[in-house]
Specification:
mainly alpha; binds glutathione; Four Helix Bundle (Hemerythrin (Met), subunit A); 5 helices; homotrimer
Chain lengths: 146, 146, 146
C-alpha cells in the first residue's frame, strides 16, 4: 500500500520544504523592511514577498489534494513528475513576484496549467475506479493495452 | 481500498474546482475594480469578493481533513453527501458575501453546522476504530444491527 | 489499515477543533473591537488576534501533511505525540500573540522545531520505504533490532 504513494509522499515533503523556504523569506523581508507583526503592509518590495508567500499558501492545500487523488487513483509516477513541475513553477512565481508584480504572471500561468492537468487526471482516475466498481471494467488499463 | 474512498475523492476534486472558481472571481474583481497585486484593499465590492475567497481558502483544509477522516473512519456515503452540502453552503456564502457583508451570515452558519456534524462523525469513527482495536468490538455495526 | 493511522486521525480532528477555536476568537474580537467584515485592520489588539489565527491557518496544511506522511511512513505513535506537542505550541502561540507581538516568538520557535522534527521523520520514513521497495531491506527495523 505505502509503496503506491511513496513518490507522492516524497513530493509532498518537498512541497512543505518549499513553503518553509517562502515563510523564511517573509521573515527576512520583515526584518529588512522593518515591518513588524501584526502589520502586513509596508513598501511594495515587502508586500510582494508577503503576497507571494500568501498566494502560494492558499494554493498549497489544493495542490496536495490533487497530488494525492491523482497519485492514488490515476498514476503515481506521472503525478509525481507533474508535482515537481508545479513546485518548480511556484518557485519561479515566488522569485518573479519578489522582483515585480508583472514577474509573477508567466510562472502563475505555468503552475495553474499543471494544476488543470492534475484536475483532469484526478477526475479520470476517480471515474475509472467508479466504473471498475460498478461495471467491473478497468477502462484505463484497457486503453493502455490498445 | 480505493473503492472505500472514491466518493470522498470525487467530492474533494469538486471542492478544488470550487476554490478555482472563487480564485477566478478574485482575478476578475481585480480587473473590474483596478486593484493590482500586491494590493489587497480597494472598494468594499472588491474587498468582499477578496475576503469571501480568502475565508473559503482558510476553511478548505479543515473541510478536507474532516471529509477524509469521516469518510474513511465513519461512512463514505453519508460523508460525501455532507461534503456536497458544505460545498453548496460555501457557494452560497461566496455569492452572499459578494452582494453584502450581511449576505454571508446565513450560509456561513449553514456550512459551519455541516462542519460540526463532520467533526462529530469523524470523532465517532475514530473512537469506534480505537474500541475495535483494543476491545475487539465493532460498536457502530452493533448499533446499526439493533 | 485504518488501525495504522487512527492516532494520527485523532490528532487531526483535535487540530481541526483548535482551528475552530481560533476562528471563534476572531469572531469575538471582531465584535469586541467593532471590526466588521470585510475589514481586517483595526486596533493592534484586534490585529494580533486576527494574525494569530491567520498564521495558524497558513501552517495547518503543512502540519497535516507532515503528520500523515510521518505517521504512515515512519511511526504512528511517535508522530501523534509530536502532533500533540505542535498543537500545544500553536495554542501558546495564539495566546502569546494575543497579548503582545513579542509573546508569539517563543511558542513559534517551539512549534517550528516540532515541524522540523516531523520533516526529518517524514523524510526518513519515505527513504526507508523507497529502500525497502528497491533493495528489499527494511533499514528502520534493522536499526531498531541493533
Ligand atoms: N505569514 C507569515 C510568514 C512568516 C512567519 O510565520 N512569521 C512568523 C515570525 S515573524 C510570525 O509569527 N508572523 C506573524 C504573522 O504572521 O502575523 C508572516 O507574515 O510573518
Ligand atoms: N488571492 C488571490 C486569488 C487569485 C489569484 O491567484 N490571483 C493571481 C493572479 S491576479 C495572483 O498572482 N494574485 C496575486 C496575489 O495573490 O497577491 C488574489 O488576491 O489575487
Ligand atoms: N478569518 C476569519 C475568521 C473567523 C470567521 O470565519 N468569521 C466569519 C464570521 S465573522 C466570516 O465570515 N468572516 C469574514 C471574513 O473572513 O472576511 C475572519 O477574519 O473573520
Amino acid at each position: 500500500m505505502l509503496e503506491q504513494v511513496v513518490c507522492v509522499a516524497a513530493v509532498s515533503v518537498l512541497g512543505v520544504l518549499e513553503q518553509a523556504y517562502f515563510s523564511l523569506q517573509v521573515v527576512y523581508a520583515r526584518r529588512k523592511y522593518s515591518v513588524s507583526p501584526p502589520a502586513t503592509s509596508g513598501p511594495p518590495e515587502f508586500e510582494r514577498v508577503f503576497r507571494a508567500q500568501m498566494n502560494s499558501s492558499e494554493y498549497f492545500p489544493i495542490f496536495i489534494v490533487l497530488l494525492w487523488v491523482s497519485g492514488a487513483f490515476f498514476s503515481q509516477v506521472t503525478t509525481a513528475v507533474l508535482g515537481l513541475l508545479y513546485l518548480y513553477g511556484r518557485y519561479k512565481y515566488f522569485k518573479g513576484y519578489t522582483e515585480s508584480a508583472y514577474g509573477r504572471l508567466a510562472p502563475l500561468y505555468f503552475s495553474t496549467n499543471v494544476l488543470w492537468v492534475l484536475i483532469g487526471l484526478s477526475s479520470l482516475g476517480v471515474f475509472n475506479v467508479t466504473v471498475k466498481l460498478y461495471l467491473g471494467v478497468d477502462l484505463l488499463h484497457q486503453l493502455i493495452d490498445i
